[in-house]
From TrEMBL:
Keyword Repeat in record: yes
Gene3D superfamilies reported in the protein's UniProt record: 2.60.40.2030
Domain Calx-beta residue range list: 55-123
Coiled coil: none
Pfam families: Calx-beta
Name recorded for this polypeptide: Calx-beta domain-containing protein
Keywords: Calcium, Repeat, Signal
N-terminal signal peptide: 1-28
Domain of life per record: Bacteria
Amino acid sequence: MTRFLRWISVSALALLATIVLLPQPASAAVGVVPCGQNCLAQALDAVCWEKEWCAVKVEVKGTPAAGTVVNYRTANGTAAAPGDFIAVPSAELPLMAEGVTQLGVFVAGDAVRERDEMFTVEFVDRDGRVLATASIVVRDHSAR
């Protein structure tokens, strides 16, 4: 009986160590984009209206190296391109200094009265892996 309990204890400890020590996927760090040695950029969610340009803010903490850019793209959610917003398949956002940097996305409009919809701006690395996301809620003027 003691040998069996010891085996279960060792097995449980090994399983726990495996779970804790395994590298976490990139999605575990969603929300923050590295922008240099002592620099992080955080994507902020936004609420936008149909038929308007929408400012998506990226808050920079620290000092990005000269010429630092963050790659981004848009992704469909309940709002879908091209009917609800103009898709951005790939673009770069230059980060100049500490503070807030903005990128613009155009939210299209249609004649359909709709509830709030959502799409995302994804900040990606060179290999296309998502580092951070900003959720964009699209509101319809006519539904209010």
